[in-house]
Fold this protein.
Amino acid sequence: MILQRLSIVNYKNIREALLDFSPKMNCLIGHNGAGKTNVLDAIYFLSFCRSSQTALDSQVIRHDEPFFMLEGEYVENEREGMDEEAVPLKIYCGMKRGTKKHFKRDKKEYRRMSEHIGLIPLVLVSPSDTLLIEGGSEERRRLMDMVISQLERPYIESLTRYNKALQQRNAMLKMEDAEPDPEVLGILEEQMATEGEYIYDRRKAFVEELTPLFQHLYEHISGGHEQVSLGYTSHCQRGPLLDVIRRDRMKDRAVGYSLHGIHRDDLEILLDGHPMRREGSQGQQKTFVIALKLAQFSFLKRAHNATTHAPTPLLLLDDIFDKLDASRVEQIVSLVSGEEFGQIFITDTNREHLDQILSASSHDYKIFQVKDGEIA
């Protein structure tokens, strides 16, 4: 997938911008706070129907403005050796304060936002990715869910049904004025088990396929100085999930929420067999998350190669070189300058890093200067 043109109105600190992009490399240069990341976030919004930085859509509207609007013009001409003309695609999102957002594909509004996820696959690498190591397990589950959801719509639907059943069960467990109806609890537990085991199977297969891709990329960037690994832990590994959930129903009632289920799954992140969170330096942790996100790209790209209609993901690299030594920067530069990647958007405050990438690449590129929300 290629984003040819992006129109932005009243998005964060960007009052108005109309940007025509290179089909390969797009570099945004500016000081911190200038608005570089906001451009990437607008691109992210058009893929995932939400910001990567805030859960409230109203918070992306520029201060003192009544609305925001984003429109992206894409083209898909991904299949090598095919003579078919590129297929244009126009995605629109707009929202007025106090109302719901509207999301449209070629002027036709979606009934459900989930119908859009996966149409424009995207991988974002940003400084906040350190939460994958430092944050709670929900951050790592979100990573798994974001990738799988871009490939499998049934996965999103199953996850939605599981979360709804979980919320209803938790509401019953919190009841103070009466005991929960055991029959209703049983129905909710059956739904959690059915959906949870499907989700577990998809997450398990994802981690198994992602791990060797990730280890190869980490070794390339680090020069093979340390060994990393991923491990997936889930209550489904203790036996049939329905039995695991029901076994501690009384304990769940005592604490007021569900202690067991795939909502407690985690992705173990290890350096030389020890938790990365405890053992890794800042440079090692940053290398880890960059390799992990580039492995996600490779995973999605494999799906593209296996599925005729799956587009190549967009790759967004936001200020990724900070806290990395020169050799690791050089290895990342050689990776992203290669043929594997499609269209890339990259931000940095340091022009030298971008010049290094551009000199290593023979592809077309554009450079954008960003200052106080103005883009040239």
Summary: The mean pLDDT is 88. The chain is about 40% helix and 25% strand. The radius of gyration is 22 Å.
